[in-house]
Amino acid sequence: GQQVMQIPQYQHVQEGEDFTTYCNSSTTLSNIQWYKQRPGGHPGFLIQLVKSGEVKKQKRLTFQFGEAKKNSSLHITATQTTDVGTYFCAGPQLLNTGNQFYFGTGTSLTVIP
Amino acid sequence: GAVVSQHPSRVICKSGTSVKIECRSLDFQATTMFWYRQFPKQSLMLMATSNEGSKATYEQGVEKDKFLINHASLTLSTLTVTSAHPEDSSFYICSAYDRDTQETQYFGPGTRLLVL
């Protein structure tokens, strides 16, 4: 089954509203990465978090890595139409067979002007 | 940032034919390249990890003989879909690790395959 889940799957917001997507892993992640995929495009790297409890900001985007390194969140303040796309978290899970890299299920964001 | 290219961007082929997709890192050396498959409105599914100079590591459920991966140099990896069938129609994306940073995957623009 899917190892890294994201909620919500879809989110529609009015421009100017805030948006948050949550990422939950079944096991501990060595690090967490976030990607944005614009409609019809390919994923682009946003950021990587490594430390437990780490918080990083990029302008209106705030990324957080949970204390247990099993969950993460991406929060966008005052969304703009340019924020439209699907946001994926991803990271390596440490398994008995070694590291396994998983992408989350993704959250598709629609911003209504 | 680093640039990864893929060729072709789109390909339409007849059922039973083989299709080769190239993934190149243009301005950095990639010791590791990844191949993903993405169905419409779904997440990326890792197919295999390709290490330069060695055999690729395939994920569970991915047929090695059907999806041939070659990583002959530090800037080029190829994925060959052999005897393609309509169910192989998908969006194939590669990504590459910059050997200097080993932190960030840089994604190619993807190849859309349609098998008739």
Write the layout of secondary structure elements.
The complex is a heterodimer of chains A (113) and B (116).
Chain A: E1 4-7, E2 10-14, E3 19-25, E4 32-37, E5 43-49, E6 55-58, E7 61-65, E8 71-76, E9 85-95, E10 98-103, E11 107-112
Parallel strand pairs in A: 2-11
Antiparallel strand pairs in A: 1-3, 3-8, 4-5, 4-9, 6-7, 7-8, 9-10, 9-11
Chain B: E1 4-7, E2 10-13, E3 19-25, E4 32-38, E5 44-51, E6 57-58, E7 67-73, E8 76-81, E9 90-97, E10 105-107, E11 111-115
Structure report:
The complex is a heterodimer of chains A (113) and B (116). Chain A has strands at residues 4-7, 10-14, 19-25, 32-37, 43-49, 55-58, 61-65, 71-76, 85-95, 98-103, 107-112. Chain A has 113 residues and is mainly beta. In chain A, strands 2, 4, 5, 9, 10 and 11 form a 6-stranded mixed sheet that branches. Chain A is globular. The relative contact order of chain A is 0.34. The model of chain A has no long low-confidence stretch (mean pLDDT 90). Chain B is globular and about 40 Å long. With 116 residues, chain B is mainly beta. In chain B, strands 2, 4, 5, 6, 9, 10 and 11 form a 7-stranded mixed sheet that branches. Chain B starts with a strand and ends with a strand. Classes of the chains: A mainly beta (113), B mainly beta (116). The A-B interface holds A 33, 35, 41-45, 48, 88, 101-106, 108 and B 1, 34, 36, 41-46, 49, 93, 103-110.
**Fraction of helical residues of chain A:** under 10%
Main sheet specs of chain A: 6 strands, mixed
**DSSP strand content of chain B:** over 45%
Structural class based on helices, strands and sheet pairing of chain B: mainly beta
Beta strand % of chain A: over 45%
**Overall radius of gyration of chain A:** 14 Å
| Largest interface (C-beta under 8 Å) | A-B, 16 and 19 residues
